[in-house]
Amino acid sequence: MIGYATIGANDLDRARGFYDKIMEPLGGKRTFDFGERMQFYGGEGRAMLAVCKPYDGEPATVGNGSMFGIQAATKAAVDQAHAAALAAGGTCEGPPGQRMDNFYGAYFRDLDGNKLCVFNTDR
Question: Which of 9, 25, 34, 109 could serve as a FRET partner for 85 with CA atoms 20 to 30 Å apart?
Fold first, then answer.
């Protein structure tokens, strides 16, 4: 399926601090770090999330209608990641909660305005 998704960032140091904090409760960590160009986050056997400055040198912008979903092992991890995102300067786009019978999710935007959902599908 998906190997990785990429999110643009204008200030990689700032983005690194944000994503380090939200990935921790999700069992993710920085797996590759290419300095001022790009970093990857992932967990064992999972797809990865790349955070990078745009290759063309233009400012990173938010994709209209784009959203990245990051799966969490537990509902508590969803809650923790959402709280970490807000504490690190992200904005809430929907608090943690049951959305469907088997979908518990929380929505937020990162420091560059990219929308993410952290979710759990355990019943």
Answer: 34
- Give start and end residues of each alpha helix (H) in the chain: 12-23, 75-87
What phi and psi values does residue 79 have, to the nearest 5 degrees? Answer: -60, -45
Q: Please give the Cα distance from 66 to 84 (Å, whole number).
A: 21
Report pLDDT for 1: 59
CATH of the domain at 42: 3.10.180.10
What is the arithmetic mean of pLDDT over 58-72? 91
pTM exceeds 0.85 for this model = yes
29: domain range?
4-54+66-120
